[in-house]
Amino acid sequence: MTDEPLLQIRDLVTEFRTESGTVRALKGVDLTVESGQTVALVGESGSGKSVTSLSVMRLIPAASGSITAGQILFRGRDGTVTDLARQPERAMRDIRGNEISMIFQEPMTSLNPTLKVGVQIAEAAWLHQGVTGSAARKRAEEMLALVEIPDAKRRADAYPHELSGGMRQRVMIAMALVCRPSLLIADEPTTALDVTVQLQILDLIRRLQREIGMGVLFITHNLGVVAELADRVAVMYSGRIVETATTDDLFDRPSHPYTRGLLASMPVIDHAARKRGEIARLNEIPGSVPDPANPPAGCDFNPRCSWMVDDCRKAVPPLFDVKGDHKSRCLRWSELNV
Ligand SMILES: Nc1ncnc2c1ncn2[C@@H]1O[C@H](COP(=O)(O)OP(=O)(O)O)[C@@H](O)[C@H]1O
Ligand SMILES: [Mg+2]
What we know:
Elements: E1 7-18, E2 21-33, E3 38-42, H1 49-57, E4 65-75, E5 81-83, H2 89-95, E6 100-103, H3 117-129, H4 133-146, H5 152-155, H6 165-177, E7 183-187, H7 195-212, E8 215-220, H8 223-229, E9 232-237, E10 240-246, H9 247-252, H10 257-264, H11 271-275, E11 320-323, E12 326-328
Parallel strand pairs: 3-8, 3-9, 6-7, 7-8
Antiparallel strand pairs: 1-2, 1-4, 4-5, 9-10, 10-12, 11-12
The structure holds adenosine-5'-diphosphate and magnesium ion (MG).
């Protein structure tokens, strides 16, 4: 039983109804996160990363979209595995913010501007664990200290707008972790912050992950962050995982042209250039993510791919085994690293 992964997404399909018809945002996603592991989900904007995380949290707005196929198997604290795709909303309310927490790019979307931050953290502890009064207040202060907010006792009485962006992000992390979740989903949590604060927040997440022992699904379009933080990487393109591997294998032997493109477009960390105010970004992948209402035939990446052959237009390639659990959805994976 305990051998079951913490999170196992199987062949997940999430669709939206739009004016131009049904848009299939996730076209059969497979993704696994083990306890204590950090898995990075990477890909350009519009590839389906946020829809994946919102599907796991069951926060896809019912008015516009739904999960139409697949499973989201989650191992709870008591060891039983449930399919989140089929849980009633009532059960999800017990899981969200408790066993699974999420942090977002913009803390103001999850913080209440009219409540002191200490009260908001205490509320999460009350809601899921029944901690009340001074005990809840103390938990809030402990959490603020844990996320390295200086003078936590006093800061607990601050309103969100009285804090800097970096401090608000720490508060959101404190709120997410107060119930010690077994899974944290972080959706581009540092993208809005300046580089120095980003590094501090990433260090914080890494430290808390070790302390709490949680699994982390870390969504980012920044491969520098991936190299720093992740044990495994899943590369997403147009609603599908196109490559997955350990972080080392992915950087050593990228086996999908899209992954190679992402790696080639990594900003060069050139401190001298940065001091001069230049950001060196090389080899942007030409073209753009396909319109989900009108995807190309066959491999979704074929219109942008320099390795494209006729067969790439005929069918969506399966995930090929590169080596061990390194997989690539490219017909020509074996030619890419010779
Ligand atoms: N509310 C929505 N209504 C219609 N389509 C949506 C909605 N949310 C997301 N999508 C579609 O899903 C695709 C993936 O979006 P998203 O997961 O937000 O990408 P990202 O990888 O940048 O997080 C988008 O290109 C969009 O077409
Ligand atoms: Mg997103």
